[in-house]
Design goal:
alpha/beta, binds 6-O-phosphono-beta-D-fructofuranose, four-stranded parallel beta sheet
Length: 373
Amino acid sequence: MTRKIGILTSGGDCPGLNAAIRAVGKAGQDTYAMRFIGFLDGFRGLVLDKTIVLESKMLSNILTIGGTILGTSRDKPHRMVIDGRERDMTGAAIKTYKRHGLEALVCIGGGGTQKNALRLKRAGLNIITLPKTIDNDVPMTDISFGFDTAMGIVTEAVDRLHSTAMSHRRIIVVEVMGHRAGWLALGGGMAGGADVIMLPEIAYDVNRVADTVRMRSKAGKKFSIIVVAEGAMSCRQATQVKQLVAGKDAAEGRKEKEKASRRLAKFHAEHLNHTMEFTKQLEELTGLESRLSILGHLQRGGSPSCSDRLLATKLGSACAELLDRRKYGIMVGAKGDGVEPVSLEKVAGRKKLVPLDHCWIKAARSVGTSFGD
Ligand code: F6P
């Protein structure tokens, strides 16, 4: 009997999603005689039963294409806005799964997706996930697909910004994605030879950054490139956020908790513009003309790199094999040259941040890169 498997992509898109859909689908169809249906726009498609049948021809010619042929969204089944109201739609998701007679559901996504997947697993569905994100912050996997491509884009941007910074003798601040984890800023900044790299994991002092720029000027280097992760914080901001989080954890009662969460959300919303303020501050402190370049969604667009194509294909084909062996409730992690199935409980709700003693940080410091600390 043909086995029927569902597949969806959820969270922010990234290069390599189509390569993963192709790998799961082709290996599943050709090697294990499975049939696949795709749910559109992430978990919303599962809840609202919006599907397409993933026939062989749909899986051809998508390896190199960015984005996802299935569409994506950040919707969560347990808190989905339907007709303007937030509702728990877990029951509807389960009904769709059963209506299609699915044997399992493959969820491809980052941190939020892993959490939603665990909830569905606990609700009784057979789930396997694959880790994708340009942030590279999914735990229990060496790397996630999307990261290598985005790092290449950041590196190219930093390369290109060098010549214009040099010509105008300016400071160029480059804002890179990554709210909580600084992998992208670190990898792209190092590969592009940035002079200062600012990460969410290391609180910075703008005076230290200005010192680095001034020292470069004294040494005859009249320009500086500063790569900033969008979640990087000054020492004062980092202390503030720690206090707000502690306040939220300590809050008792629903009203108090909501109040504390709103205060934290307000802080994060205001923090969104911090790189512009930082750039102005740096200009004032150094007297050097400064410009800000925000790379934004460019980092998530376009064709996946060779490494991401290989990674997505490796993880996707291993996923089909694990489906065949009926190994559910797991994420297919990358481990060295191979893969490692990890239980969703060990993945969901956790983030892989940059360890302060990571070899990239050590190497960067040893070649004179400042982290603003
Ligand atoms: O989840 C990956 C990510 O690219 C983050 O680095 C970034 O902060 C966020 O998504 C942006 O999300 P959106 O596209 O929903 O604005």
